[in-house]
Amino acid sequence: MHKTIEITKIVTEKDSIKYEIQDHTGMGLLKKEKVEAWVKYYNTEVFGFTTQNLPESILVLPATFYLLPITWFYDVELVIPSMDKTLSESLENIYQAYSKIYGPFKPEWRGKVTAKNIIENKMFTNHYDNIVFFSGGVDAVHAGIDNPGARNILVTVPSIEVTFKHQSEKNYGKDFIKIKSQLIREFSNVSGSNWLMITNNFLADVFNDKRIQNDLTNVFTLTSKAFYQDGWWGMKYLGNLLSSAPFAYAMGVSKLIMGSAFEPLEDKPSSNMDGANPELSNSIKFSGITFAEQDGLLTRRSKKVQNIADWFNKRNVTTKLWACSSDKPEQCSKCLKCIRTQLNLLCAKQNPKNWGFANFNEKRFNSLIRNYEYNEKNLCWLWDIIDSIDNNVTYPYCNDTLHWMKALGYKEYNRKVLKSRKQKNI
What we know:
- An 11-stranded mixed sheet has the order 5-4-1-2-3-8-7-6-9-11-10, sandwiched between helices.
- It is globular and about 65 Å long.
- Strand 1 (about 5-15) and strand 2 form a beta hairpin.
- The longest helix has 18 residues, at about 85-100.
- The protein starts with a strand and ends with a helix.
- It has helices spanning about 55-60, 60-65, 85-100, 140-145, 175-190, 200-205, 210-220, 225-235, 235-240, 245-250, 280-285, 300-315, 335-345, 360-370, 380-390, 400-410, 410-425; strands at about 5-15, 15-25, 35-40, 75-85, 110-120, 130-135, 150-155, 195-200, 255, 285, 290.
- By secondary structure, it is of the alpha/beta class.
């Protein structure tokens, strides 16, 4: 059986692109046999941006990038109406990069991408230097303070993140998008960069994700560290982020900047074994546009938070450092990413309440840490936090707990975390 997934229709409105995608595999890889997908751009009037003047081979990029990973498995052919020439020449490099990080993938799994036309797109006039992807998290804010000013554009794509609220709930995703819009507006005011927000329904409506994740685990038996870390969702991460591709092309921006999540463990260089790995972003090229070297590639997270605190304190302002995936107006302050970021702030002598953690309570946080609720899969962040605690410093918040962690050390703290979780499971 010839298995294809095809983009059969592209429709533009002033600030959006709509796609019709058909699943002809007979395997139920999409959520329905015919899927309606869309991308929407906000604050476009500032840039004079409209999707209606763009070539088809550029308009198709967001859906192409998001659908591409399905061609690495199931022997599926992705059929698209047209393709950018640079992207077509980069497909092999993209495949090899993902195979290295998530695989290796077997040759017999692999499908292909077929385009009716291959188009060599000429870049528009360069109006800006860089797009800086901005989520409001530590890595993104650090990229923002390293690349401020009117020649850079902040771009947020909140739809790339899974939120902790069921899709059947009436206001699913609304609080999350609202806070992301607020974060980028506030940082834009301080950094002097313009901003753009992009939403899409890719994660919500396109792939039959549970089926595919189960297959990759149990049928294709992927066992790499990266697959263990974030699986099928990570493979689509950069593709989803590239909903920004038509805008980058229209603005003549040749460099895309994202914050690095690399983190060493002791004296060993480490790699973020997930969908934001630099080897993956380095492999992606289209119509003269590439990812720049990731910001803060060799900067530890604790140092990034200190740099951010210094940058904002010098300007006598603060910002929210948004770590949480909770679909609420305030961060929960108790999930893994919230705990990690609050510890970074405490080690930088900052009160987390002043940096977006309205639910921070010193007594409750001390209890959370001492009860071993901080459980990191990747010990690089735990080591970094404990290593950054200075025995000769009296910290204004959670001082005793920080020094208690320092005395324990990261290995012993992690051992006790695992023991505590085992006892709870029993």
